[in-house]
Amino acid sequence: MRMSRYLITRLVAVSAAILFAGLALALWRAQYDVQREERGALEIVRLFEHLYAIENGPAVDVDAHVEALRRINDDGRLRHIQLDLRDAAGTLRVAPRDTEPSGWLERAFAAIAPGMRSVRVDPPGPWTLQRDDDARFVATLSLDPSSEQREALDNLVGMLLVLLGYGAALLLAVYWALRRTLAPLQPIQQAIGRYERDDFGHRLPPLPFAEMDRIGGALNHLAATLSGAQETRRALSLKLVSSQEEERARIARELHDELGQTLTAMRADVAWLSHRTRADAALGDVVTGLAGHCEAFHLQVRDMLRRLRPQGGAMPEGVPLKKLLADLVQSWHDRPGRRAEYSLRYALDDRAVSGDLALALYRLTQEALTNAARHADASRVAVRLDAAADGAIEWCVEDDGIGLDSAEAAHRGHGLAGMRERVWAHGGEIEMGPLASSRAERAGLRIRARFRAPETAHA
Ligand SMILES: Nc1ncnc2c1ncn2[C@@H]1O[C@H](COP(=O)(O)OP(=O)(O)O)[C@@H](O)[C@H]1O
Ligand SMILES: [Mg+2]
Predict the structure, then answer these.
(1) Is the CB of 401 under 6 A from ligand 1?
(2) Does ligand 1 have an atom closer than 6 angstroms to the CB of 434?
(3) Which terminus has fewer CB within 10 Å in the chain: N or C?
(4) Per-residue pLDDT tens over the stretch 351-396
(5) CATH number for the domain that contains residue 328
């Protein structure tokens, strides 16, 4: 159903229901008013009946009739007029009621609408009721607008209440209908929030109202497209990273095969030379120096090989990442001229880390340690690997050095950018920030990456 149609039908239904209720109320009220008028007329007839009996009836009944007249006058059923009855001595036998407005509402009403007050024109009279036994009464009728005033006031208050009820019910109906029509905005908002966090796996269910459903459909389509694009980019990144690794492995192989053989041959030649030049001390020194250079060269090549291929090639399943990292950290620790303290805390089960991810973690650590040694001027560098409660792998390297000098430092070289790319390709999240307050002189740097649990991680 369209939203506009839903709103209109609900509002029309509520309006009609309230109008019917108002109509029923007005009908009941009209009936009540007619009956009251009739009763008022009846009382006037009774009034005259008693007046007639006082003038012409037996003397013993006079007091009873006067009492009856007092009741008629006082109980309020007599409408529009009231009676003032005095005897020959001028004693008031039936006193007129007080017609001044009593309650605050009536007083306010009388003040707002002064035209409602009595016209202050009295009907003809007084009449003298002359009995045969010489007793005499004087009856005066005066106009009494109070009952009509009260009726007008009742009608006005009733109308106001109906209007108030109508307004309140309509407001409630509008509120309720709007709430229902706008309710699907909440899942839409939630979905947008998840897409903002790169979570494109979420899909919206069919939504009520054609307009909302169209928006939901468009969002689902958008998410599917973005998710596809993200998959493609991730696959490309992974491919890039793995071809980089292959290239490293190839270089390492060639270094090993070509340089290794040549080096071995050189060392054999130097050994022969040193044997042959034993007699010549000056030549012997040169040959010993040459042997030292060969040895150093060999060590440098081995170091390069180790950095290029941490485990002599791509890392197979079940490789002890812990040992690789321990060796890496140790190699920085053993480096001559070291100033910082390097430490490793490894709290991961090796089997939880796939070969690819293990290699990625190794490369991340390698780059972070190189950066710390090259840029940080730190006194403490810590590497940590932890398993989060949800099974995710948390990697962190932090140093207490000078920290990144500016936000754009992170984009200056290829190292940090490459780390970001690698983490992203493995479906992880990475963040970099200062250890201490960013205003401190030596803020330090903490780089943290988080990879989802292996079974849910991106393949
Ligand atoms: N641990 C660190 N402490 C201080 N500054 C760092 C640290 N790591 C990186 N940086 C800064 O970030 C820049 C970019 O680093 P990177 O991308 O690895 O490139 P490169 O190491 O080749 O300069 C560095 O030039 C350096 O200024
Ligand atoms: Mg670097």
Answers:
(1) yes
(2) no
(3) C
(4) 668 778 888 999 999 999 999 998 999 999 999 999 988 889 999 9
(5) 3.30.565.10
Q: Are residues 159 and 211 located together in one domain of the fold?
A: no
Q: Is 446 in the pocket of ligand 1 (CB under 6 A)?
A: no
Same domain, 239 and 353: no
One domain for residues 169 and 205:
no
pLDDT tens, residue by residue, 182-239: 999 999 999 999 999 888 989 999 998 899 999 999 999 999 999 999 889 989 988 8
CA of 369 to the centre of ligand 2 (A): 9
94 in a structural domain:
yes
Q: What's residue 312's pLDDT?
A: 56
Q: Are residues 358 and 445 in the same domain?
A: yes
In this structure, which ligand is nearest to the CA of 407? 1
Q: Are residues 171 and 208 in the same domain?
A: no
Residue 219 resides in a domain = yes
Q: Is residue 434 part of a domain?
A: yes
Write the residue with the smallest CA distance to atom 2 of ligand 1.
376
pLDDT means over runs of 10, the chain (459 residues)? 88 88 89 90 92 92 93 84 90 84 78 65 82 91 80 85 88 90 92 91 91 94 94 89 86 83 87 87 89 90 81 55 90 87 88 80 93 92 92 94 84 85 90 78 92 62
Q: Scanning the structure block, which residue is given the tokens 């170091």?
A: 303
- The number of domains in the chain is 3
The CA 416 to ligand 1 mean position distance, Å, reads 7
Residues 128 and 210 in one domain: no
- The pick from 412, 430, 447 for probing ligand 1's pocket by mutation, whose C-beta has the most ligand atoms within 8 angstroms, reads 412
Q: Is the CB of 73 under 6 A from ligand 1?
A: no
Q: Do both 137 and 238 map to the same domain? A: no
Domain housing 106: 3-181
Does one domain contain both 97 and 215?
Answer: no
